[in-house]
Write a sequence for this structure.
């Protein structure tokens, strides 16, 4: 069959792609109708070279019983005379396209729900809603009713101060909402006609955010007795702030396994695995008041970004095992950072730290170089760490 001839199955494939690309636009009333799908009518040469294939193609379209109409035209050829040939498939509307490709139920469900929501919230941007076509088309009845009820409740209670678990929406559970925060937040932003930059979803929804939990290890045996014998503690930052301890040194380590492996160290407390939330340490008076506060993290762009945040929270904080010498002497242990952090000023870094950070960003030593904290030899790291703690405490 000549390549340009479009048989019915290929026309359906074309409509599948067009439906997938355009159903959002069709839902908001866009699109030119009828939609004409060219069938690639043959030339006289096509008929002469493979008349059987052309005849099979024409017969297939003559027997078309699907949605839409096949448009035929009489074509006059010099040697073959007048021929009646199919030239296009005409689809009157989106519903016909959906019916043709087996998507009619999804289209009708999405259309019904789209107009139901639009009738309830006329201020909602139609495209924002239409962009959630899969939600409109595929959510179960229970899930869709839950979504609408939730939007109604948030509209009526913009600043409830409740926890997720307390929301009085039938059938709602925290896992259901946590999986759909982007969906709900996007619809709510459109409903409220506000910008996308609204912070985390707790603030967006007017809910109470769970307290940030911090995990610490009291490495000093004497301080453990003061803390009721507890050595490994995880609690909200506000509660940890009340611990009756006065460490001389605080070690902030990014990796949890590193923190758990740390040995007893007199006068020292370790704070573990804070990541980008490292600024929470400013709420812990025994951290701010410690004579020596040190940060030990991965040597990559994100590690230096966290170090920058940590020093903004604790200005006298010092880094350890995050210098150029440590990095370059462990080349054989390097891996690649999956993606570098945003290019920020990092004004809280020292001159030496910023030089390493900028060299990492510039790929001065190779593409996206990263030295993970865990790859350093433990005995070597402990020697350097003890020396750094003793030096900073004694100064």
């Amino acid at each position: 069959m000549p390549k340009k001839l479009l048989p019915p199955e290929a026309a359906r494939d074309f409509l599948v792609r067009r439906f997938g690309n355009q159903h959002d636009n069709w839902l908001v009333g866009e699109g030119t109708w009828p939609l004409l799908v060219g069938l690639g009518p043959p030339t006289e040469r096509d008929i002469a070279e493979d008349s059987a294939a052309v005849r099979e193609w024409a017969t297939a379209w003559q027997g078309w019983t699907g949605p839409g109409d096949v448009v035929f035209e009489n074509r006059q050829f010099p040697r073959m005379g007048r021929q009646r040939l199919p030239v296009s498939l005409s689809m009157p509307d989106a519903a016909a396209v959906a019916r043709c490709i087996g998507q009619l139920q999804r289209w009708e469900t999405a259309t019904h729900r789209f107009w139901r929501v639009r009738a309830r919230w006329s201020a909602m941007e139609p495209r924002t809603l239409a962009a959630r076509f899969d939600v409109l088309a595929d959510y179960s009845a229970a899930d869709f009713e839950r979504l609408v009820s939730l939007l109604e409740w948030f509209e009526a209670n913009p600043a409830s101060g409740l926890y997720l678990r307390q929301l009085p929406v039938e059938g709602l559970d925290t896992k259901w909402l946590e999986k759909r925060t982007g969906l709900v937040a996007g619809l709510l932003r459109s409903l409220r006609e506000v910008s996308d930059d609204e912070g985390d979803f707790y603030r967006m929804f007017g809910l109470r955010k769970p307290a940030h939990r911090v995990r610490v290890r009291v490495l000093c045996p004497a301080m453990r007795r003061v803390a009721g014998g507890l050595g490994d503690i995880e609690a909200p930052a506000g509660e940890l702030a009340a611990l009756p301890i006065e460490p001389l040194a605080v070690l902030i380590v990014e990796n949890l396994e590193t923190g758990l492996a740390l040995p007893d160290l007199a006068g020292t407390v370790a704070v573990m695995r804070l990541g980008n939330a490292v600024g929470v340490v400013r709420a812990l008076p025994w951290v701010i008041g410690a004579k020596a506060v040190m940060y030990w993290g991965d040597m990559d762009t994100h590690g230096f970004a966290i170090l920058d945040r940590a020093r903004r929270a604790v200005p006298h904080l010092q880094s350890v095992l995050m210098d150029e010498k440590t990095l370059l002497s462990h080349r054989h242990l390097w891996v690649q950072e999956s993606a570098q952090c945003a290019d920020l000023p990092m004004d809280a870094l020292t001159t030496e730290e910023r030089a390493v950070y900028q060299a990492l960003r510039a790929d001065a030593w190779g593409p996206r170089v990263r030295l993970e904290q865990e790859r350093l030899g433990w005995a070597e790291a402990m020697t350097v760490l003890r020396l750094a703690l003793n030096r900073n405490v004694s100064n």
